[in-house]
Please model this.
Amino acid sequence: MTRARARAHAAESADGPWLDPGDERTRLLLFRRPAPDALATGAVAALVLPPAAIDESALTLRREHRLPLLVRGDPAVAQVHALDGVHLAGPEQVQQARQMLGSQGLIGVDCGLSRHAAMVAGEAGADYVLFGSLDLAPPGALTDLVTWWRELFVLPCAAAGRFTAETARAMAAAGADFIATSEADAALAQAILTHGSP
Model:
């Protein structure tokens, strides 16, 4: 069970935005500011933005929609702006980020297609692992990797790529807790929300 999941179960009314995929349907981990139509679907679980994009409008979006806001690669920026966490480039960065952000900070880690990197990240205290690449169409190996991870580990996983509605639906059906993308519209959001529907 992740720290985020434990927090959600511990409180009747959450006092902050939690990234808690364990009891939820697949949702979007969005690496850009959300389009209004995608946001309206309720499919966006969290935003992950570069340090330069952490400004007042991003903080306002976070407050108004109760969306967890993570910064890419810089736990110091997460500290300064009191963000919900950080998304890191590799598992070797987890320990230092955890020391900076404490037990309440959310930490996600890029793991590419490496099972070993994902296991190291999990053991180091990450809250989720991300497989694939935001810049590429998801390779066939990604589905197998997500399925393997879900069969063996409780820690949530995100599948990253340039998804179509069809490939996103298939990845959600494979068990990805999150679809990580920098390109999301209402059609993609609806696809992952309805992947189990006839």
Notes: The first strand starts at residue 27 and ends at 30. Residues 85 and 105 are 5 Å apart (CA to CA). Residues 1-18 have pLDDT under 50 and may be disordered.
